[in-house]
Task: structure prediction
Amino acid sequence: MSAGMRLREAKREDLPTIVRMLADDPLGQQRHRVEDPLPQDYYAAFDAIAASPSNALYVAEIDGAIVGTLQLTFIPGLDYLGAERMMIEAVRVARHRRNAGLGKAILAEAIEIARRRGCQRVELTSSASRKDAHRFYERLGFTASHVGMKLMLK
Amino acid sequence: MSAGMRLREAKREDLPTIVRMLADDPLGQQRHRVEDPLPQDYYAAFDAIAASPSNALYVAEIDGAIVGTLQLTFIPGLDYLGAERMMIEAVRVARHRRNAGLGKAILAEAIEIARRRGCQRVELTSSASRKDAHRFYERLGFTASHVGMKLMLK
Result:
């Protein structure tokens, strides 16, 4: 059930819960270290996101419990006569809350944030292996129009 | 020939030249209006990019002449223990300078910017129809690991 769900900006003390959700996923577990205390680099990244006017980290809450997360990035550009777009990434629903429409509700809220801000489009990239995710986003109206390419430096 | 090419941050007065290059392309021509004077929205977008610590618009110059352009965006995130990544977009080489290795030289410079800044990876999305571009980026070491999805709001 997504009733009563609300998105709010993440606080520093939410970070362990957020990282646990990000890591709880076949791809995520290769990209995270869930330790207590959390590696300090996570806090530095959180502070960079919080300090950036172009970025926002959100959590989804139901009755005060964190049930999901996502990051939004607003990018100014020249295409379409100088349109701003919003990128969505690091979307996760807590494992015990999956398959209840929460992902859809979180995405709908995020898209509404882009709309209110006047963004011309919303974009995201999803690993080629996440076929279920692609279908999920297509049902929300996204089209798989692009190829996402990556060059690892570290 | 890419000898003597250098990247520098774009100035406001470069904007008509940049927009002409962006528009001079099968997909770009649907997304731009090349008029004199340029629609004011372009200048607003330029100012937003210039004011953003996360974004930079570059031109490539040879002997003082603008021969290419690209935009870089730096995005903090939690993946990979809080790594920053660099996105590349709106890459264009002036038509009369194409097929001379300039695109490769511009990309190499951009990747070097990411490296010096300590970015963990470089990302870009390319329209699914731009098969030549995908091969170009693959030769530079990029892998087509993701699907890029888009939802138009306007």
Notes: The first strand of chain A starts at residue 6 and ends at 9. Chain A has a mean pLDDT of 95. The CA atoms of residues 86 and 122 of chain A lie 5 Å apart. DSSP finds five helices and six strands in chain A.
